[in-house]
Design brief:
It is built from 11 helices and 10 strands. It is an alpha/beta fold and 255 residues long. It has 2 domains: 195 residues, 2-enoyl-CoA Hydratase, Chain A, domain 1, CATH 3.90.226.10; 50 residues, Lyase 2-enoyl-coa Hydratase, Chain  A, domain 2, CATH 1.10.12.10. The structure holds octanoyl-coenzyme A. One of its GO terms (molecular function) is 3-hydroxyacyl-CoA dehydratase activity.
Length: 255
């Protein structure tokens, strides 16, 4: 249902694998993904995570069949559970790259938006089609989409339920890069390895500063940056990174 493998000592690949239902997220998938994320978070050797889907979809949304007869309180629980998992992905220390191989609709688009960097195959399609099912997005799409693409475009996409292609998604900065399908994993791995080659303390603190800072005032956000900046000066990586520069050699960061 969901596979976790290590592509090298520091890189984990998570593959959502329920291709017969286009990797639709049911309760079981959410629970399993939550366990896998916990595993990845506690494995200190893993520095970067790539998340992808098997088959022609990344994730075609929450499981519509499972939602059909939900009572309001069950729908609320389901929504809160998905939101909590996606928030965990968004705020976990290590960077997460979404390698979007196909449909990223509804909950799939919301999952992708909780990742730090989004790389998509030319075949991908994106959208929040929930209003056509009689519901709004429920895994925080109403919150993340406007933060990423701006209020007006987010409202257009959510109100119309329009499905857009990868080129359009890149234009509105919903995704970082568009690549040929066969290039998706190699390109994502190359970017992951580039991140892995840097100081993971510095990368992780940068992620924390960006995430926390965008939600508060510039003054408070800058203070967070200064605090994390200062913390780096208590790390070996800062000494090694700067010494390596001055000695004109490659840094050997902590692993
Ligand atoms: N849920 C359940 N099953 C799905 C889903 C889904 N989201 N998407 C596809 N499937 C199933 C199909 O039913 C089909 O099953 P079967 O073979 O048994 O008939 C199989 O996957 C293959 O799908 P299609 O035959 O439809 O494949 P196509 O290539 O013809 O179409 C599409 C691909 C366009 C992606 C189409 O499948 C589609 O429109 N899927 C639904 C997209 C959608 O509306 N997603 C949003 C769902 S709602 C949501 O995500 C809300 C999130 C917040 C929830 C909060 C909880 C309260």
């Amino acid at each position: 249902m969901i596979k976790l493998e290590k592509l090298n000592d520091h890189l984990a690949l998570i593959t959502l694998s329920r291709p017969e239902a286009l990797n639709a997220l049911n309760l079981q998938m959410l629970n399993r993904l939550n366990e896998i994320i916990d595993e990845v978070m506690s494995d200190k050797t893993i520095k970067v995570v790539i998340l992808t889907g098997e088959g022609k979809a990344f994730v075609a949304g929450a499981d519509i069949e499972e939602m059909l007869n939900m009572k309001p309180h069950e729908a609320r629980e389901f929504s809160l559970q998905g939101q909590a998992l996606f928030r965990k992905i968004e705020t976990m220390e290590k960077p997460v790259i979404a390698a979007v191989n196909g449909f990223a609709l509804g909950g799939g688009c919301e999952l992708m938006m909780s990742c730090d960097i989004r790389i998509a195959s030319e075949k991908s399609k994106f959208g929040q089609p929930e209003v056509g099912l009689g519901i709004p997005p429920g895994f925080a799409g109403t919150q993340r989409l406007p933060r990423i693409v701006g209020m007006a475009k987010a409202k257009e996409l959510i109100f119309t339920g329009d499905i857009i292609n990868a080129e359009e998604a890149k234009k509105i900065l919903l995704i970082n890069h568009v690549v040929k399908p066969e290039e998706l994993l190699p390109f994502s791995i190359e970017m992951a390895n580039k991140i892995i080659s840097k100081s993971s303390t510095a990368v992780n603190y940068s992620k924390a500063a960006i995430n926390q800072g965008t939600e508060i005032s510039m003054e408070k956000a800058s203070e967070i940056e200064a605090n994390l900046f200062a913390l780096c000066f208590a790390s070996e990586d800062q000494k090694e990174g700067m010494a390596a520069f001055l000695e004109k050699r490659k840094p050997n960061f902590e692993r």
